[in-house]
Amino acid sequence: TTHSPIFLGLHQNSGFWRESNYGKGVIIGVLDTGIEPNHPSFSDEGMPPPPAKWKGKCEFNTPVCNKKLIGARFFQDGNGSPADESGHGTHTAGTAAGNFVMGANVFGNANGTAVGVAPHAHLAIYKVCTTGCSESDILAAMDVAIDDGVDILSLSLGGSSVPFHNDNIALGAYSAMEKGILVSCSAGNNGPFGSTLSNDAPWILTVGASTIDRQIRATAVLGNKEELDGQSLYQPKDFHPRLYPLFYPGLNQSDTDADRYCTEALLNITQVKGKIVICEVGLIPPTSKGTNVKAAGGVGMIMINSEQEGYTTRADAHVLPATNINYADGLKLIAYLESTSSPVATFSFKGTIIGDSHAPAVASFSSRGPSYSSPGILKPDIIGPGVNILAAYHESVENSTNTKANFHVLSGTSMSCPHLSGVAALLKSAHPDWSPAAIKSAMMTTADLVNLAQNPIEDEKHLPADLFTMGSGHVNPARANNPGLIYDIEPKDYIPYLCGLNYSDREVGRILQRKANCKAESRISETQLNYPSFSIVVGSTIQKYTRTVTNVGDANSIYRVKIDQPGGVNVTVKPRILSFSKVNQKLSYDITFTPLSPYETPSDGSLTWTSAKYSVRSPIAAQP
Amino acid sequence: SANLETYIVHVELPESYTQLSTSSISSPNEDLDSWYNSFLPTTIASTNEAPRMVYCYHNVFKGFSAKLSAEDVKVMEKKPGFLSARPQRMLSLH
Predict the structure, then answer these.
(1) What is the interface pTM, i.e. ipTM, of the complex?
(2) A512: closest CA among A181, A122, A203?
(3) CB distance B59–A132 less than 8 Å?
(4) Most distant pair of Cα atoms in chain A: their distance
(5) Whole-number Å distance between alpha carbons of A411 and A401
């Protein structure tokens, strides 16, 4: 990617990137649509050979694997090859661990050196998706990836939240976690609605999506001189910026048959010819709307967000001059249309602009908690770059045939997940002995809570994002490398948690792969699991939990607790001071939540352990 | 074959897993695969029926995926060690 590493504070030849050797020695397994192996992002320049433990295979017919791309497999539905026919897998693999490629851009935009988050980590590709992703193939891929010897598994795919014993990704991830493999998964694209998460088991890193501070700006200039900034990847240099008449098929909101989404029905509307057409987001992909407008004779398209998308705009590779404007500006545009009998507009293409101070802001599509399967675990865990991300692609979106260095700009939690997989690889390289839970904890307790303007991270409406929207916050790789304390969880710690979910012995046994007897096990509430965040359901009773932290910072260190109470809940912590005398020492504390009055409104708080050097923060989401 | 769907089948190891081994030279995974296959309907070689087993799982859980009909599953349910079977879901990219 050409900007997100810098946005994450990763700079070549300095800081955490250098300290972590760019992810050297770590193997990231990517379950996706396969890979375009000849892309320069997968060159092995500067790469060491794979670790001795690597047992994977390269199932391409030609010798295209190398020290970067160390494995590539396909399964039942893989069309007989690990080759990527859709580009999605090439994009996610490049984002996680692509090598440096100078001069990457699409239509000249987002230009820069494309590089993955862990550029010296190895990639093992497991093709599990073509038109969809079959569970039998996903399970087979996780099964062999565990044997192959991967360290991180990256899954930009999923379904809805179901009990973990019926969730095949959760089952595979549990086995992987038991063997020390961190599993990073997309949270899903069903936001901004609540309880829409996928991949929400506590042994999975659940990743939501946020913006970066880059815009590919395409401004709609109205006849009244008002300028509405939007985004588009396609910005033709030969566009003549004269005023064109505007046409909005959805202007009459009472006409439910109107083609406001610019579907193929637009082809039958003669008023489109020679005009800039206003289309609403939804129903079909943005580029398909543009294709329809062009086919109907339109000269341009302004795509307006609904209230649901808010300020999350996309830079798409349209086939005609176009822009995607936010909901607020869409209302201004409609007000202008209604103010005049002959509305006109044009475009002013401004190219790539860095410095959006609202970034990172949570994307409208990013799925939200609370978790349906386990509301006592705060999910998503974390957010990372997932909007308008440039990365490797299997073919040219510019119809260019003279290069293998093809790139594309895509958005989704599919794009944020591999960013976090890459960060996990950097942490694994820097701290080989850290467990998957320790790596998760390090990322979560050090995450950023403010945007570039130093205001609280916002959601798609530019309102402060709540904890079920952003989890612990936006990943900060350098801080995660030195978290001070970690909340570790061993595989056996999940047994009382699973029994506490009231699963039957057989259901728990299915996850553990051995007989379980919950009557003989201790049974804990979800919130008692030693998780780095809190999600509590407040009733009338007092709730008390114990957490254990491990000192991974300076040997002699004293931490004091700082509590930001959720509204209506009294939070007390004992002891209030933790004094460590050695590294890896574990100390426990009790946290008690006491409702102050009948509790009706969800609210957020936090608990932070601070020392002279470290700040270890756990968010607290309270809901009635 | 039109009635066949890919099912994900969970099974439970017998009390004494070591007794599964029929040959001293077979590997633990071969033993497991052989046991998984014992759940499948007997195929008749002369009909050129396609193999029913899709994958044998060794790490993610004890079980396999196979092309089965609803009737096959009903028969399988009666076998010792059977836990559950359900048609696989198609998940989507995010």
Answers:
(1) 0.94
(2) A203
(3) no
(4) 78
(5) 25
pLDDT exceeding 70 applies to what percent of chain A?
A: 100
- Chain B residues with CB under 8 Å of A140 CB are 54-55, 57, 65
Closest chain B residue to A157 measured between Cα atoms?
B93
Lookup: tokens for A286: 């943005």
Q: What's the mean per-residue pLDDT of chain A?
A: 97
Would you call the peptide bond into A50 cis, given omega within 30 degrees of 0 as the criterion? no
Task: State which H helix or E strand residue A218 sits in.
Answer: strand A214-222
Dihedral sign of CA atoms A597, A598, A601, A602 in order: positive
Q: A196 CB near a chain B CB, below 8 Å? A: no
Q: Is A189 on the interface with B (CB under 8 A)?
A: yes
Q: Which residue out of A4, A32, A165, A198 is catalytically annotated?
A: A32
- The kind and range of the H/E element at A289 are helix A286-295
Determine whether A39 is an active site residue.
no
Read off the tokens for A288.
């398909």
Each residue's pLDDT tens digit, A335-388: 999 999 999 999 999 999 999 999 999 999 999 999 999 999 999 999 999 999
A78: tokens are 């893989």
pLDDT at B60: 96
**Cα angle: A82, vertex A87, A114; to 5 degrees:** 110
Instruction: Name the pLDDT band for B50 (thresholds 50, 70, 90).
Output: confident
The tokens of A252 are what?
């009459």
